[in-house]
Amino acid sequence: MEISEPQNQPTLMDLYVFGEDFLEKYLIKDTKEIEPFLHQERKFWLNISGLEDLSLLEEIRVLFDIHILAMEDIKNNHQRPKLEEFEHLILVVSKMIYTKDHITELEVEQVSLVFGKNFVISFQETPFDIFDQIRARLENPKGKMRKMGTDYFTYTLLDAIVDQYYTILEMVGEKIEELEDQIISQNKNIKLSDIYLQRKSLLEVKRNVWPTREMISAWRKSESPLLKRKTVPFINDLYEHSVEIIENLEIQRESITTLVEIFISNISLKQNEVMKTLTIIATIFIPLTFIAGVYGMNFDYMPELSWKYGYISIWILFLGTTLSMVVYFKRKHWF
User: Fold this and answer.
1) Can you state which reaction this protein catalyses (predicted)?
2) What is the pLDDT of residue 233?
3) Distance in angstroms (rounded) separating the CA atoms of residues 25 and 229
4) I need a surface site. Which of 17, 103, 144, 183 has the fewest CB within 10 A?
């Protein structure tokens, strides 16, 4: 799988206000439309797609009193996954890895999550995301997302991102098995670059999942009042998922190493077959060359040169020698 970064997109905002017995959706065009919800006790999720409108991001920062350094981390899409705690909110920076329409190119996108007492804000680089399942779960009035706090909602968003790592690993694993079958069947179209492309995909997942595990570990140890005790078991479960992904990565990495060894061994076997064929041909021609060399010398007295059947005899000797060596090599199972 190839790896690419998402292209810049215009900024879009959608708002979900929810509780145990209600769910409201809004398409936000101006930050002034958000202000009324800040003075209510109702929980809401603001999803912002596209980070190019710096003036809009500054308005969001002022509106929610986000620390200026936190906003810099949000706008800088080359951050490592991490967690930062502030007085009235928590910033979670993560990396979302996905593919579009099952193509072979990996998309790596930074997703920043900010949550406070009654709000969750997600900042994405592009409108495309993997949160459709989150939106579907919000439709269920009996689900935990409606009943629990913003810390649990943030957990569900991060859980969707981590679960996507499983999907990527599964896709890479299937590709590795396919390459292994093709190599064993000696498919001539397989190249070493095909194997290293899968290795590159695994390295991209590993580069992001390791700091993600550290970030989740810091979150579950957090003493912030924004993290409720009943949410901690879910955070612990998310941590276990990250550990499991790392273990799967090591298994996949060993599979890649084995695949490279099989590929190189296969090439060596092919080269050995070619060398054996050339050696057999050279061995057959050595005595023929010797005989031809002897009778190609310009001596005055060589009885066979004036013999009536000399030419035919030489050809009989050539053919007899060749057939004898072919039969010998065949019995030795050299070919």
Assistant:
1) Mg(2+)(in) = Mg(2+)(out)
2) 92
3) 29
4) 103
CA separation, residue 255 to residues 37, 173, 248 (Å): 52, 9, 11
Give the pairing type, strands 105-115 and 12-19: unpaired
Cβ(204)–Cβ(106) under 8 Å? yes
Q: Is 145 in the same domain as 119?
A: yes
Provide the pLDDT for residue 3: 53
> For position 7, what pLDDT does the model report?
53
Identify whether residues 278 and 254 lie together within a single domain. no
CA dist 214 and 57 (Å) reads: 28
What separation in angstroms does the CA of 135 have from each of 108, 139, 209?
A: 21, 7, 24
Report pLDDT for 104: 64
Q: Exposure pattern of 308-328 as b/e (b: 16+ CB <10 Å)?
A: eeeeeeeeeeeeebeeebeee
Closest CA to 77 of 13, 2, 8, 165: 8
User: Which among 245, 238, 256 is positioned nearest to 207, based on CA atoms?
Assistant: 245
Q: How many domains does the chain have?
A: 2
Q: Which pLDDT does position 1 carry in this prediction?
A: 55
Question: Do residue 30 and residue 129 come from a single domain?
Answer: yes
Spatial CB neighbours of 165, under 8 Å, sequence gap ≥ 6: 97, 205, 208, 209, 245
Locate 307 and state its tokens: 């013999």
Domain residues for the domain of 119 are 2-265
Question: What is the predicted pLDDT for the residue at 58?
Answer: 93
Tell me the pTM.
0.77
Say whether 84 sits in a helix, a strand or coil: strand
Check residue 131 and give its pLDDT: 85
* Whether residues 204 and 184 fall in one domain: yes
State how far the Cα of 28 lies from the Cα of 15, in Å rounded to an integer.
Answer: 7
> For position 175, which CATH number holds?
3.30.460.20
Question: Are the CB atoms for 211 and 275 separated by under 8 Å?
Answer: no
pLDDT of residue 20: 84
> For the chain, which ranges sit under pLDDT 50?
none
Assess whether 209 and 317 both reside in one domain: no
